[in-house]
Design brief:
By secondary structure, the protein is of the alpha/beta class. It folds into 2 domains: 279 residues, Rossmann fold, CATH 3.40.50; 201 residues, N-(1-d-carboxylethyl)-l-norvaline Dehydrogenase, domain 2. The strands form 3 sheets. Strands 5-2-1-6-7 form a 5-stranded parallel beta sheet, sandwiched between helices. A hairpin with a 2-residue loop joins strand 3 and strand 4. Helix 5 crosses helix 7, helix 7 crosses helix 8 and helix 16 runs antiparallel to helix 17. The longest helix is centred in the middle third of the chain and has 25 residues. It is globular. The chain binds nicotinamide-adenine-dinucleotide. Nicotinamide-adenine-dinucleotide binds next to helix 2.
């Protein structure tokens, strides 16, 4: 059947559908960046609460600040903002319909509708998944980059901004004037200290136009840090077909693994849903959870994805099934990543690696190497390079991490070991390709990408290890190089 409010009662014969009255829900959250992850994670937690009869005044209004979000809006509005969530376990598949989202704002230049909605008193949380690269951060230092053209645009046109942060600042300005008060800005992106980084962007931008407002935001708006976790692949023809097999004509279904985790600082200036009643953890010690997850899972993804792309292995679970790539993964993790991860109360770092190894090996999840390798310029700098810095400082090995960087550089040449081409997969792909070509004879050229590596290229131990792996890759190719590392 088609997916919409009217068909829910007939769909209920085949799968769980919302049992609460969606027409009685009222908005409390505006979410910007409505890709797949939000619908598989935050929206699901809220849906679970709504199923318990709670949080009916916290429904989600979707939004996007990029023109490509308009297509998602069309698809979701046509199905009354319902999403089929398909859980993929090694032993089977199940699905449910998630109903916690009730509207999707127009995606438009100037973001007028978004600003007006966020200015409404009923909105108490503005949450974001705008990707790791979406925070206007200097990759090497992590600081806010006011010189970015989009930020400069928003400084020139504060009432018609093009960024999420410009829209948030404009809405907060209206709320301060109207007495509606602040809302919480909640990042759900994979960044260590995502709340702190979000605050730097919002306050940093406000400071450029209205320092009074910036001070008010600094004092009143909360930006909780959080660790978010659930592997949510991109939706392609196979996922659409899977929804049809399950009996739902969903134009934008979401597949996900069964594991979910959300560890959040309990800092919400205008209240929050009781997400802890449905499995989220509120704590003032998010930092170690974030570090554990970002280093072992997200850095681990980068370890796999560049090698997988070069050897033409399609998905993360296929990488784990490949003896060479999985041996590479196991060795880099145990020798060079896990030693730089502190335990958390529930789990040691080695146990967390075992958990991640199992999750990555789940063959039911078709998480493509291409999705995971996308935007390496943000992901290597955010996930791998902080570990390199810690290792250099501690005097521990960096050989495997240097090989990860060499594999990424080699991948950016755009050709796999079998001669097939790798399509552009980074916002700065052209620069990466040119630099990777120059690095063949001058490896330092790659580490000279200072917006990514900062001053790491000046560290002799790291630079030598990188240069030696890159020349091995050029001479002998990826398989030989990986085998050499694994056996050495
Ligand atoms: P997606 O490609 O489905 O959606 C990305 C969304 O971000 C889109 O709405 C896009 O328009 C928007 N966006 C991209 N760049 C932007 C920018 N510069 N400014 C504003 N909006 C921008 O991706 P997804 O799977 O939903 O993942 C999004 C983010 O969620 C990830 O980058 C990550 O930080 C976090 N996350 C994802 C997963 C996962 O498994 N998919 C797991 C944990 C965390």
């Amino acid at each position: 059947s088609p997916l919409n409010e009217a068909s829910l009662s007939s769909l209920a014969a085949t799968l769980p559908v919302p049992t609460y009255d969606r027409s009685a829900l009222t908005p409390g959250i505006v979410h910007i960046g409505l890709g797949n992850f939000h619908r598989g994670h935050q929206a699901w937690y809220l849906h679970r609460l709504m199923e318990q009869g709670k949080a009916h005044d916290w429904a989600i209004v979707g939004a996007g600040v990029r023109s490509n979000d308009a297509a998602m809006r069309d698809r979701l509005l046509a199905q009354d903002c319902l999403t089929t969530l398909i859980e993929l376990r090694p032993d089977g598949t199940s699905a449910e319909i998630c109903g916690s989202m009730i509207d999707f704002l127009p995606v438009e230049e100037g973001n007028g509708a978004l600003i007006a909605q966020m200015a409404e008193r009923s909105i108490r949380i503005v949450s974001l998944t705008v990707t790791e690269g979406g925070y206007f951060q200097d990759a090497a230092t992590g600081s806010f980059t006011p010189e970015h053209a989009d930020i400069q645009h928003d400084v020139a046109y504060p009432d018609a901004p093009c960024t999420a942060f410009g829209a948030i600042v404009a809405a907060l300005k209206l709320r301060r004037a109207s007495g509606a008060g602040p809302f919480t800005v909640q990042s759900c992106d994979n960044l260590r200290g995502n709340g702190t980084i979000t605050k730097a962007a919002v306050v940093g931008l406000a400071q450029l136009t209205d320092s009074d407002l910036a001070n008010w935001i600094e004092e009143h708006v909360s930006f909780p840090n959080a660790m978010v976790d659930c592997i949510v692949p991109a939706t392609g023809p196979q996922e659409l077909a899977l929804a049809r097999v399950l009996g739902v004509a969903d134009a934008a279904p979401v597949t996900h693994e069964s594991f979910r985790q959300w560890v959040i600082e309990d800092d919400f200036c205008a209240g929050r849903p009781d997400w802890d009643l449905v499995g989220a953890t509120f704590t003032n010690h998010v930092h170690d959870y974030e570090a554990m997850k970002i280093r072992i899972l997200n850095a681990g993804h980068q370890v796999l994805a560049n090698a997988g792309e070069l050897l033409n292995v399609g998905t993360i679970s296929d990488c784990m099934a490949d003896p060479l790539i999985s041996a590479f993964f196991a060795r880099v993790q145990s020798e060079e990543i896990v030693p730089h991860v502190a335990d958390v109360p529930e789990m040691t770092a080695p146990d967390y690696l075992t958990l991640i190894t199992g999750r990555f090996s789940n063959g039911a999840i078709r998480d493509t190497v291409r999705r995971v390798a996308y935007d390496g310029s943000s992901r290597h700098s955010g996930f791998i390079l902080p570990i390199v810095r810690d290792a250099l400082e501690a005097g521990t090995p960096v050989s495997g991490l240097a090989l990860c960087e060499a594999l990424w550089c080699f991948m950016c040449l755009g050709t796999r070991e079998d001669g097939s081409s790798i399509e552009a997969n980074d916002p700065i792909w052209d620069l990466l390709q040119r630099t990777a070509a120059a690095a063949k004879d001058d490896p330092q050229a790659w580490l000279g990408l200072s917006q990514i590596y900062g001053d790491l290229g000046a560290n002799e131990r790291f630079a030598n290890a990188f240069a030696s792996w890159l020349s091995h890759l050029h001479d002998k190719g990826p398989s030989h190089t990986l085998a050499h590392y694994v056996q050495s």
